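To the structural biology subgroup,

Please find below the input and predicted structure for E3 ubiquitin-protein ligase TRIM9 isoform X3, which we are adding to the shared reference set this quarter. The sequence is reproduced verbatim from the submission form. If anyone notices a discrepancy with their own records, reply to this email rather than editing the shared folder directly, so we keep one authoritative version.
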Amino acid sequence: MDEMEEELKCPVCGSFFREPIILPCSHNICQACARNILVQTPDAESPQSSRASGSGVSDYDYLDLDKMSLYSEADSGYGSYGGFVSAPTTPCQKSPNGVRVFPPSVPQPPAQQHLLLQPGSLPPIPRNSCITCPQCHRSLILDERGLRGFAKNRVLEGVVDRYQQSKAAALKCQLCEKSPKEATVMCEQCDVFYCDPCRLRCHPPRGPLAKHRLVPPAQGRISRRTSPRKTSTCTEHELENLSMYCVQCKMPVCYQCLEEGKHGTHEVKALGAMWKLHKGQLSQALTGLSDRATEAKEFLVQLRNMVQHIQENGVEFEACLVAQCDALIEALNRRKAQLLSRVNKEHEHKLKVVRDQISHCTVKLRQTTGLMEYCLEVIKENDPSGFLQISDALIRRVHMTEGQWGKGTLTPRMNSDFDLTLDSGPLLQTIHQLDFVQMKVPAAPMLQLEECCTQNNSATLSWKQPPLSTIALDGYILELDDGNMGPFREVYVGTETICTVDGLHFNSTYKARVKAFNGSGVGQYSKTLIMQTSEIAWFTFDPASAHQDIILSNDNLTVSCNSYDDRVVMGNSAFSRGVHYWEMTVDRYDNHPDPAFGVARGDVLKDVMLGKDDKAWAMYVDNNRSWFMHNNSHTNRTDGGICKGATIGILLDFSRGILIFLINDEQQGPVAFEALEGVYYPAISLNRNVQITLHTGLPIPDFYTAGEADPTDSVC
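Predicted structure (tokenized):
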């Protein structure tokens, strides 16, 4: 019952409906609230405001207003509609449920405002008044009846009364924002329950509110329950009760409406009968809605379970991520320690080399300085003989010492710069590229049955990933069996989601399935789809494999040649299983040529008569007789030739491995060839004197399907 409460509250005041009226848009509003949101339009528009309001207005009365609606979410809340309604200039207010409402645009003295709240003492509504539905924002200009033109929603009023009576708990304040307190009073005029703080704040005993009557909450509930239910009367004839139902207008009407009003020519039915009918329709509609509600509840349970699973998986995944990042940081710290150790070693090595050089240079400099000072003192001596005795030795020592300070001696043995550069670029790039990778295999694809089909001996399959699947994938693998309950084999690997497989066997049942794969592996198979290829072959001549002298027309069903030599053309379908039959008619036959009809391998020679090589099995025929030919071996000469209009039939039976020819529905000679196995194409050779038309999709001849005679014994 609590879920229904929003349906029972007025969209303007936010309280339970009190004397609700039905707007033409089918929304409801309290009668007092409807008066409060009325807006007066300019008098100049009064000629266009003469439309009837209330229950007598159909949905079409809104069309003109809707076409000129300039409503915007950025405007005052109800908008200005063409030239019908001017935008209100009074500030908007908000009801308890958040809907914006406008007070009357025409100022009134306090006494008159007080009268607005007194039932039965309502002043007349100004002319050209307009009311806008607070829910759908449709506007309607009222006629001379004003709000009396709208029907009272007695059913809604009764539901509100029953709902309030079912509330056995203590009545709560309707204006408390959080944790509503127990109500202490109820205002009969406002129809609102107040606690003491909200009453002092929102309903002070002064001004127009001083004359409102406040009663205890229990008494207010009783007064609501015992308020008399009024009988529904006609909005146009207030003294008449509603007794009939107008089928065309879809509304209850009174007897006088049928006699004098616009419903006189309309189809009407008894009110009670339509009441029961509509109740049944509503009950039936509620059945479907109830099923949807049940599904929604189950779906909500599923979503709540998903929330719990997401939270659990999120905590687990976060812990895993932190552990992985911590492991990376630890590895980086270990590498950092190793690199620092190398730097320290290089640092100590440089210092040792420089310090050794300093020590060596210091000793040598001291020796050099001592020698220099000694030499200077020797130079000061005045004894020539004594000087000359040692001068040569000193000169040699000076030169030798000077030589010891030669090139490289005064050059540092070690560079002060560190010749180590940390190459962190790849690591930084790797860190920047560090991201989540898909560690799960893809889900099983879904075959789209509405797009899967077979045509002739081709099959087209389409699939997609499940709607909620977010797993990345690299491609799909499509598999088919051999059409004879054999093993599956791959026929397509790629990223496309639709594939056509050609060259299947006719009249065969194939099984197909598809799976997806990514870097983590291969996912599960989809459901297996069973497909049936065509029982009868439909094909045409193949221009791609035909000799260049061949001329095709009639959608590749008619063939001729521009050469006097025989040229070969094959069909675009190959056969390897089943029983197949096709015919060719002679459209033109000049100068008694020898066209050849039969079957051939895909690599048959195209510039000689069919049957000249070992790749073709044929019957060539002139106007009097025919021969069978394979590998240039001519056998079984048979009387009976062809002419213009003749029909040549070819019957290929793989179940028995035989090839039979017919001319004009009669078997020509015995079985032409036996022990046929493998893949064969329909083929024909002809020159410029012949034109042939192909006919396919034909049933097997009756003489062969009946089995009354062995075709090997038939001779024509």
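Summary notes: The longest helix spans residues 271-380. Residues 353 and 414 are 7 Å apart (CA to CA).

Regards,
Lab coordination
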